[in-house]
Amino acid sequence: MLCIKETQRKMSEYRVLIIGCGQLGSRHLQAVAALSLVMDIDVVDPSPAALSLGQERLLQVADRNPSHRVRWLSKVEDATPGGDLCIVATQAAGRPALVEQVAAMGYRAFLLEKIVTQSAAQYRDLLSLADARGLSVWVNCQERTYPFHQAVRARIEPSEPVVFTSVGGNHGLACNGVHLADLFAFYTGAQEIQSAGAHVDSQLHASRRGASVYDLSGSLHGYTTNGSQMTVVFAGDHHAPYQITIATRHARWVVDYVNQWAWESRKENSWTWTPVRFEGELRVSYTTRQFATEILTKHKCSLPTLAEAFTAHRFILDELQPHFNRLLGAELKYCPVT
User: What is this structure's pTM?
Assistant: First the structure.
């Protein structure tokens, strides 16, 4: 048996594997690099440019842990086995196979970037894999963890129907839509979001993350069995970032992340709008500090689990797949998103 001193030493020397070091992966790296409890970080990306971006952003971390060791790798199989947490920030294609490969190396805790997979069927495969291997998996749909949303949900009766709307510009029905659908699931506790129709523009929006992945603009509508309703709009000819409204029979709230403000209007106050404190750091380079620390030290996390995030993913992927097929003139069994 390890003595107490030895156990404490080992518990302050966690090993983290980050796969994918592009725009998001390098932000996860910045977060992990600031943690004093992490000693070893393996960063994997086949792209030299991505690894270079990670090295550049690592130098930007003012409170970086000076004791940690970072290894820059081009292949997953070269990573150190038996680590404590794997953060996956690759494109969604091939995600179940990648998680299976890393699980075979002894990793049991995962934080996955959304979109998790490109189809609901692939997502089910990943759920089965996680169950069979005893994996603990969380998905970085982080909006439900914001203090504002935590406080608002606490003020809504669990059975009370919610009307949830989000309106923004440009495109993002897939990549941003899954965040919003997850937030709707968080507010309603629903395990399934039913389709209430969609209007998707006849335009594929190219993604900066690759030549074969896209996003869409338009609107999606959903509902739950308790009478809650959701509308998500990304207007292709608008440019404003999205804002969110949550409404019940007794109160309503509006929040704008970019300006970091929120307002509340309640029935007992004659529906007068009053400001609500908006707090919290929203950048991945900071939020992942909290999530990684929770996973490493408590074996739990405030992010949705893989099973919890399936509600939003199933709705978004099933709803958008026919539109991708229509616009591509193909019969794909997946959504070409990342």
Answer: 0.94
